Amino acid sequence: GAGVSQSPRYKVTKRGQDVALRCDPISGHVSLYWYRQALGQGPEFLTYFNYEAQQDKSGLPNDRFSAERPEGSISTLTIQRTEQRDSAMYRCASSGRTSGSRNEQFFGPGTRLTVL
Amino acid sequence: AQSVTQPDIHITVSEGASLELRCNYSYGATPYLFWYVQSPGQGLQLLLKYFSGDTLVQGIKGFEAEFKRSQSSFNLRKPSVHWSDAAEYFCAVGSAGGTSYGKLTFGQGTILTVHP
């Protein structure tokens, strides 16, 4: 596709369940970023990859959160043992046919996660 | 650590009026600065960016922003607002190096309402 896609668009789960959020970046993009956006706030950085290598995971809130990008394309953000405070919009962005912070990040539509 | 402040949570203007959205940043070196717009149900779209050079940058949809180092500001402007500009606007600062290369730090956003 032409843009970044994310699935599912909406996810409702019960507390304690694991969830996996998928991001399909723009074809050929080197860098992939995950952000979390709470209501009324701006996106907050979680982690990012260059190709398949996770470069920075300093924004992951705790060890229940993990991300992978095994083949340098599609990425999955996994939240284990979900809690109500995990409810938020999770956004993915990709950038660059070469790595570089000047590259525009193209954002997907997000996954709205609700934990009951 | 880098940070962004958008002092105005909500701004209302009349269609055809001029607009200025404020953004102040904190960053240890020359910042990479961005303005994104988010419409309901949509991903974030880049309006414009500043890396270096001319401090007045032009973006899409008739928007412009001016980088003022002395004031640590990057305010977004538009001379005449259209009803379709109603959305949420985010200012962001990008990391130019280190382990957080490419990471964006966003402000909390300004919601723009346009009255006919």
Description:
- The complex is a heterodimer of chains A (116) and B (116).
- Chain A is built from no helices and 11 strands.
- Chain A has 116 residues and is mostly beta strands.
- In chain A, the strands form 2 sheets. In chain A, strands 2, 4, 5, 6, 9, 10 and 11 form a 7-stranded mixed β-sheet that branches.
- The model of chain A has no long low-confidence stretch (mean pLDDT 93).
- Chain B is mainly β and 116 residues long.
- Chain B has no helices and 12 strands.
- In chain B, the strands form 3 sheets. In chain B, strands 2, 5, 6, 10, 11 and 12 form a 6-stranded mixed β-sheet that branches. In chain B, strands 3-9-8-7 form a 4-stranded antiparallel β-sheet, with no helix packed on it.
- The mean pLDDT of chain B is 91.
- Chain A binds chain B through residues 3-4, 31, 33, 35, 40-45, 48, 55-56, 58-59, 91, 93, 95, 99-110, and chain B through 4, 32, 36, 41-46, 49, 51, 90, 92, 94-97, 99-109.
Short description:
The complex is a heterodimer of chains A (116) and B (116). Chain A is mainly β.
Ranges of chain B where pLDDT stays below 50 over 5 or more residues in a row are none
Q: Look at the structure and give the mean pLDDT of chain B.
A: 91
| Helical coverage of chain A, percent range | under 10%
Residue-averaged pLDDT of chain A: 93
Report helical residue fraction of chain B. under 10%
Strand content of chain A: over 45%
Name the beta content range of chain B: over 45%
Count of DSSP strands of chain B: 12
Number of strands of chain A: 11
Uncertain segments of chain A are none
Global outline of chain B: globular
Instruction: Label the structural class of chain B.
Output: mainly beta
Sheet with the most strands of chain A? Answer: 7 strands, mixed
Distance between the termini of chain A: 33 Å
Shape of chain A: globular
**Over the alpha carbons, how many angstroms does the gyration radius of chain B reach?**
14 Å
Structural class of chain A: mainly beta
Number of helices of chain B: 0
